[in-house]
């Protein structure tokens, strides 16, 4: 009796397996599908959206985005970005990008007269964005440095040989105190990123449109 029960159960299991295999489509169940059973769902964050001037986060509505990057060594040229437009890059000089926005770079030539004309000719209500390339300390005369100081620079008189320097100024109006306006990085042979030059530096932020 016990042997009969075992044979009957085996036959029933075989028949049930045959029945299922004959009536269930083969592509219904796959090994890959079985392997996915029990796995936790993976939640993937969406790709971050690129912001103006490569900011990490967007400027609030009603603001302009800006980013000023100094030069680094001989090959890395400065960049000045305003509202996602490169107002200055590489060899360009004194480029008018958009109305009432003026940018310039101070490089290895004597730019004192050019810089003074640049500042004096900028209209009231203009933003002035500056970045250094090579050496500002020896290439700008004191009269030019004084004009930059009058624009609000606190570091122009402290610049040393091959210091990296960036500056944001407003002519004829005052920028909010919480806006990043100036930064400097002095050359130090024990810390310089490039041979004879410190690492490039940058400032970035958002400027309320109603100020301009």
TrEMBL record:
Species in which this protein is naturally found: Helopsaltes ochotensis
ILEI/PANDER domain location: 108-172
Name assigned to this protein: FAM3B protein
Family: Belongs to the FAM3 family.
Major subcellular site: secreted
GO molecular function, one term: carbohydrate binding
Gene Ontology CC entries for this record: extracellular region
Pfam families (alphabetical): ILEI (PF15711)
Alphabetized InterPro entries for the sequence: FAM3, ILEI/PANDER_dom
Chain ranges passing through the membrane: none
Record's keyword annotation contains Disulfide bond: yes
Keywords assigned by UniProt, alphabetized: Disulfide bond, Lectin, Secreted, Signal
Localisation: Secreted
């Amino acid at each position: 009796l016990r042997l009969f029960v075992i044979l009957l159960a085996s036959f029933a299991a075989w028949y049930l397996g045959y029945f299922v295999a004959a009536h269930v489509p083969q592509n219904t169940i796959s090994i890959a599908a079985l392997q996915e059973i029990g796995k936790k769902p993976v939640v993937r964050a969406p790709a971050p959206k690129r912001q103006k001037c490569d900011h990490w986060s967007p400027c609030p509505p009603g603001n302009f985005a800006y980013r000023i990057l100094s030069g680094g060594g001989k090959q890395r040229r400065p960049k000045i970005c305003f509202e996602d437009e490169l107002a200055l890059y590489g060899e360009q000089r004194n480029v008018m990008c958009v109305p009432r926005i003026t940018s310039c770079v101070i490089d290895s030539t004597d730019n004192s007269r050019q810089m003074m004309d640049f500042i004096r000719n900028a209209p009231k209500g203009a933003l002035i964005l500056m970045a250094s390339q090579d050496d500002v300390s020896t290439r700008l005369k004191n009269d030019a440095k004084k004009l930059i100081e009058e624009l609000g620079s606190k570091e122009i008189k402290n610049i040393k040989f091959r210091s990296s320097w960036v500056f944001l100024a407003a002519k004829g109006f005052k920028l909010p105190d919480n806006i990043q306006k100036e930064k400097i990085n002095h050359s130090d042979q024990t810390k310089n990123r490039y041979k004879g030059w410190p690492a490039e530096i940058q400032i970035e932020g958002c400027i309320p449109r109603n100020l301009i």
